[in-house]
Amino acid sequence: MDETERIATSPSSKGRETSEFLMRIVRTLSHSADFEQREKEKARIDKAYKQSDKKLGELVTAHYEDLTKVTQDFSRMSKCINDSRERITKIREDLSSCKTLLHCKRDELRRLWIEGVEHKAMVALLDQVELIKEVPVKLDNFIISKHYLHATDLLVNAVAKLEKPLAGIDALRDLKAELIARNEQLHETLIEELNKQIYAAVPDQSVSLKRSSSYRRGSNLTKQLSDPECKQTKPTELLKPPEMMDLNKEIKEDLNGNPEENPAHFIAVLVEALFVLRKIPDSAERNKKMKDPLGIKSKIEPELSAIVARTSQQVVDSYAQQGESLSSQNQPRFLLELLENVFHQFRNVARMHKIVLRNLQRIIVSGVPVRNELLYDMNDVWSKIQAVVSIDIEIDYG
């Protein structure tokens, strides 16, 4: 087979080589003057064509299944491509229409979006109003159960909302005035509860003392008076010493427990509640807005005097029940029992003041600025105790 046949029958010939082969045949036939030569060339081309056709038929027969599959896949792919083109064309048309419509409705859409934002803000505001309206009831429940820290947090947060985000709502003005008044009432309640824990929680001993042991304990009275740290065996002394309190511990309140079960923790809660109310200076000294303007420091002497008066009356009543009169020969025995009872209560009062001062120190350590002259210390407590012992008891039994 010559070069012409090889090129014609080669299955791997490329398009450019095929084109050159055809051009060569055309030139050969056009330049040949001999008819016989042209017929011979034609026969050779025809023979190469038949061989190629035969080989093509064999290849088609051998690869009929693959060819059929390829043809089907091509048809399916071609259909998918056509469908995709149609969908893309439709999407483009729809996007163009949407763009035109959005451009026409831009101002209306902006207005609707602004209205939507306003409605969301209004709904949130109404939710806050509903929560604020429930504050008085929740506050009463917390105060009744003596969970003062939760009550204080609730009240302070409610007042803060009424002064800023809800300040423009006229319907809440009365509620705001009520909650501000409740703020002062809660301050008074906290001071009263704190004084109760310091003074009223100390049990009186006059009824429980045994008469036979009064003179025997008299020899220890001088030592107790001179040593304010003398150990006691009363239940209140089972409290954790104030010096051992952790100043960094966060004060928490258990809604499921009894707040007064642990007096030391209850005092810490009361002081923390006063701090949340921002009433620490007023609570330590005095607040003229309160019905009882005396603060913790100012009430030390009156409360101690009340303890002396109450204990004196109990001693007199106790001996009166035994048929004894307050005669001159019995006064030393009455005075001894009075001093024992009073000084026991005074030591417990001093211990409670230590707990209060320790919690005040915890607040100062946390970085809260408090003027020292508005606070007090144990020297103030013991000086008041000495003054009351020397003055009030002398008046009663002098």
TrEMBL record:
GO terms for cellular component: exocyst; growth cone membrane; synapse. Residues 45-141 form the Exocyst complex component Sec8 N-terminal domain. Belongs to the SEC8 family. This is Exocyst complex component Sec8. The lineage of its organism: Eukaryota, Metazoa, Spiralia, Lophotrochozoa, Mollusca. GO terms for biological process: chemical synaptic transmission; Golgi to plasma membrane transport; protein targeting to membrane; protein transport; vesicle docking involved in exocytosis; vesicle tethering involved in exocytosis. Keywords: Exocytosis, Protein transport, Transport. The keyword Transport applies. Component of the exocyst complex involved in the docking of exocytic vesicles with fusion sites on the plasma membrane.
